Each structure stands twice: as structure tokens, then as C-alpha cells.
Amino acid sequence: MNFGKKLKPNEHIHPEIPHRLEQIMTTRTAKYTVQAGDSLNDIAASFSHNLTLEELEKANPQIPDPNIIHSGDIINIPGLGGSGAKFIPSEKQFNNMFPYRDPFYTYPGLLSALSLYSLFTPQEAAAFLGNVGHETSGLKYIREISPTSDYCDMTKPYDCPAGKDQYYGRGPIQLTWNYNYKSAGDALGEKLLEFPDLVATNTEISWKSALWFWYTQPSLSGSAHAAMRDGKGFGATIRVINSTECGKTPPSLQVEDRVKWYKDCCGFLSVDPGSNLYC
Questions:
Q1: Which end of the chain is more exposed for a tag (fewer CB within 10 A), N or C?
Q2: Is 85 or 179 the better-scoring residue by pLDDT?
Q3: What's the rounded Cα separation, in Å, for the pair 102 and 104?
Q4: Would residue 135 show up in a list of annotated catalytic residues for this protein?
């Protein structure tokens, strides 16, 4: 991830969207890339209030022994499409939050992503969109400017086939590092390791990569999704996304900006921001 860096407008390719999505799809199943230390029971607890271990096992017949899963395995997560979606911001709310956004960031693209990864409450939606607002200065920017790292971990067996300098921040959450592009691509069925610029040129993939990160990236607080689901507060999502901003007195300018974005999004969604806003 890149945070607090100066960004520039992207010279993007607008994909053709054949029709506006009026309803969230009901037949899609999300996918999760197993991380070191995961168990099926932990994964079930992370994704839904109602998903049981038995349901998760049934959705993954490719795993012969549910007690044995390996880092890098792809797990099907049932119930996150359609009826699993608990809250979806309206197009008017979205437009009011981001009145000056780059046209690349479309509302139908967000809806498509929400067919895979649901936001369960208005407060979680505000937390996700508030962090997105901070990362992209209100969805104005798509690519990172002047990366401070090449974000290429050469210790990984797959290296950096797109080039060592091609895994900089892109999209709503500013996805970085070759291993994140690899894991996101595996989960979404896209060759993001080989073609990382898909995150900056395909609006649906871009939104999906952001929600994939929101749902799956672990920290001491769990994922950002789990932090909001479990009532840990917005500050816990900052610690997941960029812990280097945390632990400062007074709070860092980056944290203050994230909290401002979150409060503003809560206002548009008419929801109380709650407590524990800082990290």
C-alpha cells in the first residue's frame, strides 16, 4: 500500500459497461486466498455473521481434509453475493461523497465489486469509503506518483514478471507489492501479477481489488472488515491499512485526514461514527 503520497490523474482506458447494474448479483461466490496460520474455522468467522464451518466445508469440496489447508489455497466463500449484501450506498450518496472523482471510478463498478464482497452496515460502508477517500483524495487519482519503493519482493518464487517498478499503488485502496497483486489476482481470477495495470484500467477489477484487500488483509486487529464487524472502531481499520500512521501524539496528519473522511461519509449515510476513531 502507498499512503499519504502525492498522486496524479491517470491516463486510463474506460471499459465499456454494457448496462447499469440495478441489482446486486445473487449467484456469485467470493474467493479468499489462504494466509499463513489460517484455519477454516477462522476464515468462516471472518466473513459473515452467519457463515458456519459446515457451510464453508460444503462450498470447498476440493479440500479433502478440512483440518489441512495451505498458504496460497483458494477458498470459496458462499453467501457474499446478492442476499449476503447487507448495505449498499445509493448512487446519490456515492455522488455526494465524491463529487469531483475521476470518471474511471464508476458506481456500477462499485456495485459489481459488492457482488463479491459485501459491506454489512452503513458504518462499515463509511469506513471503507472514508479510507478510499483519503487514499485517492476523493477518488480523484488512480496511480501513485513518485513511489518511494519498487514494491517488488524478490524473495517470492514468482518474482515480478511485469517489471520491478510496476507494483506501485493503484486503485481505490492503492494496491501495492507484487505479492498483493498476486493474491488479489488469484482471488479474483485475473492475471494481476502479470498485468498489474488492470487495477488502473478496468474499473470493476479496481473496485474488487480494494474490497478484496478490505476483507482479507490480516493484522493484529484482523482484517479491516472484521474490525468494523466486531465493533473495534474506525481506528482499527487504519492500523490494518497503514499501521505506520498510528501511535503518534498528537495524531498524524494522515490519521486526522482519514478520520475526517470517515466522519464525512458517516454524515452522508446518516450513521453515528461510533468510538475508537483513532489508532
A1: N
A2: 179
A3: 5
A4: yes
